[in-house]
Amino acid sequence: MSPLLEVKDLNVTFRTRDGDVRAVRDLTFGLNRGETLGIVGESGSGKSTVALAILGLLPKNASVTGSATAAGRELLGLRERDLARVRGSVIAYVPQDPLSSLNPAFTVGWQVAETIWTRREMSKEAAYRRGVELLEAVGIPRAAEQARRFPHEFSGGMRQRVVIAIAMANDPDVIIADEPTTALDVTIQAQVLEALRAARNQSRASMILITHDLGIVAGLADRIMVMYAGKPVEAGAVDDIFFRSRMPYTLGLLGSLPRLDADSHARLRPIPGAPPSLIDLPPGCPFVSRCPVAIGRCAKEEPALRAAGPEHGSACHRSGELTAGAPLFATGEPPPPAAPAPATLPAAEDRPIIGVTDLVKHYPITGGRLVRRRAGEVHAVCGVSLELRERETLGLVGESGCGKSTTARSILQLLAATSGSVRFEGQELTTQTRGQLRALRQHLQVVFQDPFASLDPRIPVGEIVAEPLRVHQRWNQRTGPARVAELFRLVGLNPEHRNRYPHEFSGGQRQRVGIARALALAPKVLVLDEPVSALDVSIQAGVVNLLEDLQDRLGLSYLFIAHDLSVIRHICDRVAVMYLGKLVETGTRSQVYEAPSHPYTQALLSAVPVPDPQVERRRRRILLTGDVPSATSPPSGCRFRTRCWKAQGLCATEEPVLTDRGQGHPVACHCAAMAAVWPGAAGAGKHPG
Fold first, then answer.
1. What's the CA gap between 146 and 153, in Å, rounded?
2. Which of 167, 271, 504, 599 could form a disulfide with 252 if both were Cys (CB 3.0 to 4.6 A apart)?
3. Within 13 Å and on the Cβ side, how many CA atoms surround 656?
């Protein structure tokens, strides 16, 4: 059977002032009818460029050669009028950012219907009815009512489902989904992936799924193509890629992933270095500078994609010598010791360094034109109590908008709490004056989510790291530069690069600069607010290893905020789960992950993809309906009851209290019951509906 979509010798080059960027090089692949192909790789590998080239959506400075045929029709070189007929009816596109692809001036129902009546002989009324049916098919509740709303009134996950409905509208042969779950919470991600499955099944379409998340392709894809430096370096069936990989880069990607289903504190194995520039690529394999098994031939001759098994190709000169599952990459060298040395650190004590009791943070909502009146409140944090012990990592998890970052900023006194108590080493922080807090701030530091936005682009990174020393301590021209150099070495950066600016560093290096700045004053507590969410998986592994090393050497305590529950399991000692301003479950890492008792925790864990096709095939998902309720008017009783499959009458009238049900595992639920969320875990077989 001939492929439904066939790409041959595709080359895409962008003309820039610095030179020609060869974004895609000699790419050939086919997509069979009813098949799902996953395209994976680090940022800049050319994944999205392939999709845009097929659809004819590249900018004018792009030069495209080769061939791309859909159902036997050549797409490259078609006039825009002809391409417009292909888009949507033959090939549909689901973009990464749904807000920028939806028209803010029209309702979502009208936009879905417009896609139908402009391509079919159908009345606008009939097209609108069909649009409502499609919105229902992708899981939008009360579709007839929601169709009358505008894009800005939808959450990110709901907007993504609208875009999927638009892609389904004309029963396309191929759906291309470009990073469809980026920046979404795991529960919303699960809903979007289910909507993609529905779109594929209902329209009987083939699918190209572009993503950096190997867990997503493990559960959705039939075949996988791994891209690096604009070329495919390995391709094959999903099981071949995960269990019989024959390319060091693929093995490196798999080895750098923290696993949700593995209770291990072993160090991750990041891929060293960074992808090469696509301007004037040197001869040989582009991965040679990062490869632990490279030989002389690798630097001279670029390997072609050759057979490594039935329908399995690998672009590596040593593919026949590699053993699947064998660790190729080192865990990385730990940073040099910092004072005080480990031997001089006092023994860890089971005492809280941070104590939070009944923390409340409400934001007033004001209205009125002439006289501003209080019209309501946003209940961001409502009665949170937690403890962070010395040299402990406490993970704070939950969906976006649940109050995680507000809790952290209230602990740091960057926000004034409405009520409650925050204590640092027994000192009450909420009653401290600004001058008193300044003396304490050197012990409480923060690392932000976006390293580029948190670094001043006009100042060299050496001055950025030195700034806390200048503000809080008397700068010494002899010891100051030495301290900055020591901090650079501590986080794995070259002190000779201190005069460079933030834009001259990679994302992982910028995050290391942010960590060095936070460590400048020798703090006792670091608040890490999504510190690895914006990084590629291999860079993320290096930063996670660094944080673990620093904690061991410096005796730090971490409050680690993240939506990636796999990273949380790897690095945290205890976990606190937050929903709509309240803690719903806390416990040790093993308690929360092996025996989650709150339905919300179970739903969070069941939604996280595992990079293992066999596990993904056996898992049962808990798909939450709807979105998180508004924090301005939270539900009565249990705040989770509007999305809970276990809710009873008591849940609507009586708010559950966080109660310890034994072994230090408090849960706030009237219907709490332990359940496993993946095959082989403790209690497997008791998974709820």
1. 9
2. 271
3. 28
Residue 509 lies in a domain: yes
How far apart CA 4 and CA 70 sit, in angstroms, is 6
Q: How many residues does the chain have?
A: 689
Q: What's the pLDDT at 688?
A: 31
Has residue 309 been placed in a domain?
Answer: yes
Residue 267 lies in a domain: no
| Spatial separation of the C-alpha atoms in residues 551 and 333, rounded to whole Å | 15
Integer Cα distance of 657 and 588 in angstroms: 19
End-to-end CA distance of the chain: 40
Phi and psi, residue 170, nearest 5°: -115, 30
Which position has the token pair 């606008």?
Answer: 124
**Least confident segment among 223-232, 358-367, 385-394, 655-664:** 655-664
Same domain, 149 and 235: no
- Look up residue 111 and give its DSSP letter: H
CA separation for the pair 676, 612 (Å, rounded): 17
Q: What is the pTM of this model?
A: 0.87
Q: Is the pLDDT of residue 341 over 60?
A: no
pLDDT of 422 strictly over 90: yes
Q: How many domains does the chain have?
A: 4
Do the domain assignments include residue 236?
yes
Q: So what's the pLDDT on residue 347?
A: 40
- The separation between CA 658 and the C-alpha centre of its own chain, rounded to angstroms, equals 29
Range of the domain at 178: 5-221
Does residue 680 contact residue 619 with C-beta atoms inside 8 Å? no
Q: Is there a single domain that holds both residue 171 and residue 231?
A: no
Q: Are 381 and 359 in contact (CB under 8 A)?
A: yes
Q: Find all residues with CB under 8 Å of 608, minimum gap 6, and list them.
A: 186, 215, 260, 565, 566
Partners of 8 in the β-ladder: 67
Average pLDDT (597-603) is: 93
Percent with pLDDT over 90 in the chain: 54
Q: What distance in Å separates the CA atoms of residue 317 and residue 322, rounded to the nearest whole number?
A: 10
687 pLDDT above the threshold of 80: no
Which one-letter amino acid corresponds to residue 505?
F
217 and 296 belong to one structural domain? no
Q: In this structure, are 26 and 150 located in the same domain?
A: yes
Token digits of residue 536: 């590629």
Same domain, 15 and 103: yes
Find the CATH number of the domain harbouring 105: 3.40.50.300
State pLDDT tens for residues 641-685: 999 999 999 999 999 999 987 677 899 999 988 776 765 554 333
* Residues linked to residue 479 through DSSP beta bridges, in sequence order: none
